[in-house]
Amino acid sequence: MRIALVSDSYWPRVNGVSVSVQSFREEFERRGHDARIFCPAYPESRGPSPAERNVHRYPSMPAAFSKEDRLILLHQIPDLFRDLDDFRPEVIHINTEFTMAIAAKLYARRRGYPVLVTAHTDYEDYISNYVRHVDPRALRALARFVMRRIFESADILVTPSAAMERKLAGYGVGKAFHVIPTGIPALFAPLPRGEVAAYRARLDARFPRLAGKRLLVFAGRVTEEKDVGFLLPVLERVDAALGGVALLVAGDGPGKAALAAAVERRGLTGKVAFMGYVPRSELPLVYGAGAVFAFPSRTETLGLCTIEAMASGLPVVAIGEMGTRDVMQGDHGGFMVEGDPGEFAEAVLRLLRDEELRAAKSAEAVAWSRRFGIEAAARSLLEVYEEAAALRAGPRD
Asked: In terms of CB atoms within 10 Å, which end of the chain has fewer, N or C?
């Protein structure tokens, strides 16, 4: 099958959409399909990018709402149309909502394809972090209105979690959804102890403040909606009760400066290390070096990092909201808690004080994560593609 994956976001933009598009594309190719990516060009790389084979990029400008995001230039739309015509896809899968998506929807309507969209992002909970000096209630209402219009206009809808399905249904989107999580590739698995020990030694050499300490690991974008600052009082409580604990932040983003300032204000500089962007191939080592994966975000449509950590054998303590609740479904692979720093710290302490419990939760995490493998996810998405291909009406111009 010839598959066009269209997205306003792809590497070097680091987020869950980029991961999803890359992961599915690689699995489709492994199965013998021709999957190509259509996305913006970025002026410079801020992180690792996969090989660019069969990636079509278009000149873009910065988005007003986010310096990290790009919008393709309107005069590039004919080039996108020509590239799609040359490729002759059997299905077009749209993964975002901005200019690439708008152009792809227009193409789909003109060429008789059904509009197939995945709703990856919960804009209601994100928008007030990017648009300042406007009443957050008005922004949330606007986000709900726009999301309802966008997804009501689609022919086939995919969501990565039941939580996102429930949210869109609550907006009044009356269409049926296919709930298909982004699958986790075999890259994420427990690594040999010697390999992890060697990596930990390199990590300690880079950040001497970590030497001899057990690590709480956060991985993901450092933004307001991820609420990484929530972990600072957690770290204080855990370290006061046990000692020898540090926080490792694997990721970067527009919230890093504010987080670093909060670390300094609280006197935690010697107990927090910022890695910056980490190549995805290195993440299993990061997880392997940790003692607990600490994830405070309440806005995940799925929570890929949580699944990756679990697959790598790292027990999780996370706030049980949105996609995290759907992933963990209780205390599978760790502990799912309320958004209280004291309760969160107590769950972390349970794992750090009881190595037998931590080992049991590690094994449970690996076993539970298998339901999120890329093979099953790709198989489900290909079934949706077959449905979409059968609905194609043919060109309309």
From this structure: C
